[in-house]
Write a structure and sequence with these properties.
With about 130 residues, the protein is mostly helical. It has a domain of about 70 residues. It has 4 helices and no strands. α2 packs antiparallel against α4. It is elongated. About 5% of the residues are buried. The model has no long low-confidence stretch (mean pLDDT about 75).
Length: about 130
């Protein structure tokens, strides 16, 4: 027969996670909140990276497509490369306008989304204390 304590310790050993202390439940809740915030922070970075990449790809595809259409109907051969270059430049401009803002206050968020994320994180950590 196994006791619940042995079963729990075996479960945590199999998952390579330390077993939380039984008498300090608040510390376990804070540790879980910090781990969840860390995972969310990684996802925020991945989300922003994907948006930046999509701006670049969309700019090249849209303006390159317009250049191709112009070349096709006008019988020229230079509008496609010009459209690709202008699309890449336009995508870089959009990225700089969107993500290149430097806040005047070092602790201030750089976008509306990060302001909401920081506020929700702050609320959660204050509630765990």
């Amino acid at each position: 027969m196994t006791t619940p304590g042995i079963t729990a310790s075996v479960f945590h050993a199999m998952n390579d996670q330390p077993e939380p202390k039984r008498h300090d439940a608040a510390a376990a809740v804070r540790a879980e909140a910090v781990q969840a915030d860390s995972a969310r922070g990684e996802m925020v970075g991945m989300d922003q990276g994907m948006r930046v990449l999509s701006y670049l790809i969309a700019g090249v595809l849209v303006y390159g497509g317009l250049g191709w259409v112009g070349d096709h109907f006008l019988g020229t051969g230079f509008l496609l490369p010009v459209g690709i270059v202008l699309g890449a430049a336009g995508g870089c401009y959009a990225i700089i306008r969107r993500y290149g803002q430097v806040p005047s206050d070092p602790g201030a968020p750089t976008s509306r989304w990060s302001a909401r994320y920081n506020q929700s994180t702050k609320d959660k950590t204050e509630g765990a204390r």
